[in-house]
Design brief:
This is Phosphoglucomutase-like 5. The chain has 300 residues and is of the alpha/beta class. The chain folds into three domains: 105 residues, Alpha-D-Glucose-1,6-Bisphosphate, Chain A, domain 3 (3-Layer(aba) Sandwich), CATH 3.40.120; 113 residues, Alpha-D-Glucose-1,6-Bisphosphate, subunit A, domain 3 (Alpha-D-Glucose-1,6-Bisphosphate, Chain A, domain 3), CATH 3.40.120; 67 residues, Alpha-D-Glucose-1,6-Bisphosphate, subunit A, domain 3 (Alpha-D-Glucose-1,6-Bisphosphate, Chain A, domain 3), CATH 3.40.120. The strands form four sheets. The chain has a five-stranded mixed sheet with strand order 7-6-8-9-10. The chain has a four-stranded mixed sheet with strand order 12-11-13-14, with helices on both faces. Helix 3 packs across helix 5. The longest helix has 11 residues. The protein is globular. It starts with a strand and ends with a strand. The model has no long low-confidence stretch (mean pLDDT 93).
Length: 300
């Protein structure tokens, strides 16, 4: 490896990693995350590897990595290497490897991801919904995970939502002492706010931004299966799908058939897969799937 791309301050959501991989045509990406589990020094820690298409590594790649790992006899570290993760731009280092120099690039991952979203959604329509005469008040809970800077920048700065629309937006090592699992048990701050009736839409994200929960007014819970079906039924409101069309839908086996009913009306196929995002990647790469989701609140 001769070049590393790292998010400013070490902050990168899973969707942003996928975006950057595809944008720069990287060989892959590594995500260090607790996902929706407890974090901190005594918490959990995981490593996710995404391949060149921006999706999770398929079984054949994961199995190969595992087999190679069993043959490793040593590893080298560079304790004196100091990378300033707060400073945007390129930093170069002279290491004892075949790449001269070794480059580390610190990027504004929020800005890169924001530019991607601008090409997918109608930001003017969303901005009018949040700030216009018939505005809807929303509440988004980042659960002190990586999504905080994204929520602030995109929702408040770009789309004009009031600052109090976003809560728990400071990334913390221990996620504020509770698992960043977007459900009715742990997203209590969001649930309490929504039950008050002031907000018409609420959402919470997990630690690395690849899971969410949706709440309606008065705290009405929208389950993962219905959320996926509602999005599918309203794809005509999203410019990207108006331009590219809808080829099909994908859902995991435990996800309900609500999506199937939408697909029947839209006259597009539905593909049922085992649980695991890597199976959706195969459908998308083959051009058969435009939207997919699973029972654990992952949608893309």
């Amino acid at each position: 490896i001769g070049r590393l791309i790292i998010g400013q301050n070490g902050i990168l959501s899973t969707p942003a990693v996928s975006c950057i991989i595809r944008k720069i045509k990287a060989a892959g990406g590594i995500i260090l995350t607790a996902s929706h589990s407890p974090g901190g020094p005594t918490g959990e820690f995981g490593v996710k590897f995404e391949v060149a298409n921006g999706g999770p590594a398929p079984d054949i790649v994961s199995d190969k990595i595992y087999q190679i790992s069993k043959t490793l006899e040593e590893y080298a570290i560079c304790p004196d290497l100091r990378v300033d993760l707060s400073r945007l731009g390129r930093q170069e280092f002279d290491l004892e490897n075949k790449f001269k120099p070794f480059r580390v690039e610190i990027v504004d991952s929020v800005d890169i991801y924001l530019n991607l979203l601008r090409g997918i959604f109608d930001f003017n329509a969303i901005r009018n919904l949040l700030t216009g005469p018939n505005q809807i008040k929303i509440r988004i809970d980042a659960m002190n995970g990586v999504m905080g800077p994204y929520v602030r920048r995109i929702l408040c700065d770009e789309l004009g939502a009031p600052a109090n629309s976003a809560i728990n937006c400071i990334p913390l090592e221990d996620f504020g002492g509770q698992p960043p699992d977007p459900n009715l048990t742990y997203a209590t701050a969001l649930l309490e706010a929504m039950r008050g009736g002031e907000y018409g839409f609420g959402a919470a994200f997990d630690a690395d931004g690849d899971r969410y929960m949706i709440l309606g007014q008065n705290g009405f819970f929208v389950n993962a299966s219905d959320s996926l079906a509602i999005i599918a039924a309203n794809l005509s409101c999203i410019p990207y799908f108006c331009q590219m069309g809808v080829r099909g839908f994908g859902r995991s086996m435990p996800t309900s058939t609500a999506l199937d009913k939408v697909a029947k009306v839209m006259k597009v196929p539905v593909y049922e897969t085992p649980t695991g995002w890597r199976y959706f990647s195969n459908l998308m790469d083959s051009g058969r799937c435009s939207l997919c989701g699973e029972e654990s609140f992952g949608t893309g």
